[in-house]
Design goal:
4 helices; mainly alpha
């Protein structure tokens, strides 16, 4: 894990851009809370690196748009017992 908050925010952004991971997956991968990931990416990263923020914003927006689909698939899986 990064030594400073700014390094952590940049590492999170690069990870999410490369993998397309959700906030939840990134939080589990780095061993931090979802709220920390969200705060790092949405509040701290724009002040640190605008270019990186623009790229990660696209990933976050795409994940948000697909959220309802993932929820429906999880519910279906739950009730079909798979």
């Amino acid at each position: 894990m990064a030594d400073t908050i700014s390094e952590r925010a940049c590492e999170l952004a690069v990870y999410m851009i490369e993998t397309g991971a959700t906030v939840r997956v990134a939080a589990q991968h780095f061993g931090i809370s979802k709220s920390t990931v969200h705060k790092d990416l949405s509040q701290r990263l724009p002040r640190i690196n605008r270019g990186l923020y623009a790229q990660v914003r696209q990933v976050l927006d795409e994940n948000k748009a697909q959220r309802h689909i993932r929820g429906g698939m999880a519910t279906r899986k739950k009730y079909l017992g798979k």
